[in-house]
Amino acid sequence: MQNTSLKQEFLKNWIKGLQLHSSFNKNTTIFERRKAIKLSADIAIASTRNSTTRWSRALIADASRDGSNKTLIEKISGREVPHKASLGLIRCSKRILKRSRFARRRAAPVAGLIAKKLVKSRTRALKRLVPGGEGMDEISLIKETIDYIVSLRVQVDVMGRMATAADRLIPFKTI
Amino acid sequence: MEPPVEETRVQFRSGIRGSNPEEMSFGFLPAHEVVSTQTPSENGGSSFTALLELPPPQAVELLVNEDFRARTAPPIFPSNTVLVDRASKFSVFATAVNSPEVKSVLSASCSMKPDMVKLEPMDSDSHLNSSMPAASDQSPKSLKRKEKEKKVNETNKKSKKVVPNDISEGSGDKLPYIHVRARRGEATDSHSLAERARREKINARMKLLQELVPGCNKVSWTAMVLDEIINHVQALQRQVEFLSMRLAAVNPRNNINLDAFFAEESEPAVDNYHSMFTASMWPERQVSGSRQQYQQLWHLEGHQQPIWAREEDNSNFITTENSLLTFDSSSNSGAMS
């Protein structure tokens, strides 16, 4: 019941991308098709955010790194993404992180240190999962994760419905 | 001097969140690096508003009223936006049934003098811009804090500037700063205050995240909560991969008729998706066989080779024209513009 407009927007963007892709090339392999479908879906869900969140910008920037995706991205999102800007941000934050890592080593060993280590390793893992997570401080990381999870859910929901609808079209099944 | 008071405060919260050790925060950046209140500029406000399109319930009006009342009162105790924001976030994912109890909670909490946390401009804006009611988890927190403040003989050592709260819905960029006050026996330098503010922020967001991810409420400790979150995100990403593979194997005939689909305003049910595909299909997809393979794909995370090799046999039946990707755009050009 929630997120209806989000789902619809995602669907529109996604189908735009799929149409564009089909007009381009006819893939013979299932793997290429899967890649194309996933790419369209990812760009579609990222562009529903209109570059307001870091993960969406990072996702689109990653996709636009490959030159062949350019028209796809422009068609779906309707805008050109400045490539250099996002990279600069990431570099800057990494510098701060490195500095802090050295500063912390002087702390006296406490039981809480183990806890901190665990939390730290998990935050690192989360950063790897969320697109564009590497350059974030943990506050915005959590915020981005929340938004990312909701968007992922929308994506999964819409794609799942599409898949079940497509399944229903098969009149008979063969093994 | 600082640790004992901090401990008691943390223990209060432990009633709500389980036992959190003092070092719950990530401790990524040392406090003296984070005194600034500017996050990298991103306005999450519109994103959350778009996400959570709830009609503004009456509780929000109460929220606004409380804020006005707070403003006219002496500025020492403005409203506790953090809790309200947190609570409102919580209730968005619940149903609107919460609103009656929300209203009573709000009126009860009006008389309290909550503790203040300095919020960054940007994220408060994102909370405030969306129209959300406050929920009941605000009350236990504020109650406990009030008791705590009564016990600890309040001496205001330090306070920072307050910019009045502007919670009117859809209001643009008025962003609140909230007091951070040092309690008795606490260090009052700006570092620890900033660090405390930062920790409060992190805790607030973690709470939101916990509510979002299913199964996190039972887990008490940050590392385990993060584990759950990571698992959830990984599972969702895997699902996307899985579904895109599944869709790639589907072979409907071209014509996807989107006109009827987009004419509807309601939530797209599966049947509506069905209407997108017109007749004349090619029944060449091997559904059950490939489904088994998909299940195996689901379980074998790294080992995809054998499954894909098997898929290769099926691909003989899959011709280029019969993929999901080829749409008849002529019928859709009207809809897509």
Characterise this structure.
The complex is a heterodimer of chains A (175) and B (337). With 175 residues, chain A is mainly α. Chain A has one domain. Chain A contains seven helices and no strands. Chain A has helices at residues 4-24, 30-47, 54-65, 70-77, 83-104, 111-129, 138-168. In chain A, helix 1 (4-24) runs antiparallel to helix 4 and helix 2 (30-47) packs across helix 7 (138-168). Chain B is mainly alpha-helical. In chain B, helix 5 packs parallel to helix 7. Chain B is elongated and about 80 Å long. At the A-B interface, helix 1, helix 2, helix 5, helix 6 and helix 7 of A face helix 2, helix 8, helix 9, helix 11 and helix 12 of B.
Outline the secondary-structure elements.
The complex is a heterodimer of chains A (175) and B (337).
Chain A: H1 4-24, H2 30-47, H3 54-65, H4 70-77, H5 83-104, H6 111-129, H7 138-168
Chain B: H1 2-17, H2 45-51, H3 58-72, H4 81-93, H5 99-109, H6 121-129, H7 138-151, H8 190-212, H9 222-248, H10 259-263, H11 270-276, H12 287-299, H13 305-314, H14 333-336
Helix pairs in contact in B: 1-7, 2-6, 3-5, 4-8, 5-7, 9-12, 12-13
Q: What structural class is derived from the secondary structure elements of chain A?
A: mainly alpha
Q: Total number of β-strand segments of chain B? A: 0
CATH topology of the domain at 189-262 in chain B: MYOD Basic-Helix-Loop-Helix Domain, subunit B
Percent of residues in helices of chain A comes to: over 70%
Order of helices and strands of chain A: HHHHHHH
What does the radius of gyration of chain B come to? 26 Å
Average pLDDT over all residues of chain B:
53
In terms of quaternary structure, the protein is heterodimer
Helical content of chain B, roughly? 40-55%
Shape verdict of chain B = elongated
Indicate the mean pLDDT of chain A. Answer: 77
First-residue to last-residue Cα separation of chain A: 36 Å
The count of strands of chain A amounts to 0
Cα-atom Rg of chain A, whole angstroms? 20 Å
Distance between the termini of chain B: 66 Å
The largest β sheet of chain A comes out as: none
